[in-house]
Amino acid sequence: MPDIISYRHFIHPRTKAVLGGEARPTKVNDHRVQGKSGFARFNAKVGLMITLGVGTMICAYIFAIIALISLPSAIKSHNLTIIIAWISSNFLQLVLLPVIIVGQNIQAAASDKRAEDTYKDAEAVLHEAIEIQKHLAAQDEAITEVVDKLRGLSPSPA
Predict the structure, then answer these.
(1) Which residues contact 46 (CB under 8 A, 6 or more apart)?
(2) What percent of the chain has pLDDT over 70?
(3) Which domain holds residue 85?
């Protein structure tokens, strides 16, 4: 008679990676220019430094002050085109750029937090699934023991 327990549990490679501590949640900083040329890494570092400097509310306030310096001359011109150009190019572009970067940094941090929480949730589900596998293995052993005992009690076919 064939074995009643024919199921064999094989651990998924991703499960092995998580259990081995090799896997972790992907975060915004993981998407830097890794493994690229020195020039690409240099450009990424310079771009990041500029972004970190410009992407502050202090920079937004400084840009607003710089833009406001030219406001009186735009108003004195009494030219609607110059006033609209001042609003769009001087004020909006200068001030909104750092404000948008600040907002994006906040969104990136929230995204990283969500990724971390999702990863922890997946780890918990993985842990529960492993516990279920252990429970099923224990039940398989108990069932096999009962079946073996029952086979010993029944008369063998002639």
Answers:
(1) none
(2) 88
(3) 29-152
